Amino acid sequence: MQELKGKVALITGASKGIGLGIAEAMVKEGMKVAVTSRSQSAADEAAAELNNIAADSAIGIEADVVNYSAQEASVKKTIDAFGKIDVLIANAGVGHFAPIEEMSHQDWQQTIDINLTGVFNSVKASIPAIKNTEGYIITIASLAGTNFFAQGAAYNASKFGLVGFSQAIMLDLRKHGVKVSTIMPGSVATYFNGHTPNKEDTWKIQPEDIGQMTIDLLRMHPRTLPSKVEVRPSIPPSAR
Q1: Is 191 a catalytic residue?
Q2: CA distance 180 to 150
Q3: Which of 47, 157, 189, 239 could form a disulfide with 60 if both were Cys (CB 3.0 to 4.6 A apart)?
Q4: What's the CA gap between 125 and 197, in Å, rounded?
Q5: Which CATH class name applies to 8-239?
Q6: Measured distance CA(15)–CA(47) in Å, rounded
Q7: pLDDT of res. 196
Q8: For 92-110, what is each residue's pLDDT tens digit?
């Protein structure tokens, strides 16, 4: 996969933030991308932005990762549009944070459903296509998948689970020529958890940085697999 031109990626939760940053990096390398969102209009807007970078490089798909049938449909629509899938980026995620006494059942369930079961759904639906191309699966986890913190019970549980899931499927799938990596970012300048990126975010990892990291993983010599990649800001405010 060191030659990326013409490769095809399906990216979940890619209407903004990390997912869109990865999509932008891919289309600049000549790849085709299908970007999903729970909103068709948001997916179409992202696809239009990508097509302005490289014409006919992207399609938008409305799909909720919690719905397995929607993930199967996303795979079919991607293949119908571009003929195959070489890369799956399982990026869609949410965050709910509260002390355990205040954590609602609804927030707990949504966090687990999207961040963990949603990735299972995306991966499961994509496996036949990814096996066919001996492709690459990249899950977007978090440093919260190895570092626990107060008020993070739901988010920590989902991301610890996602890291374990990703490493286990890496062992399942490598015998089929499929590579699996999980990227575990620290603070990223995105719209996550209601945040709006602003000038105070310059110290944070930027979405395009994760995009470049993804390209680097795809271009890695096939004999080598960085199965788990931790990435954090070089100098956070507390260290300045």
Answers
A1: no
A2: 30
A3: 47
A4: 32
A5: alpha beta
A6: 8
A7: 83
A8: 999 999 999 999 999 999 9
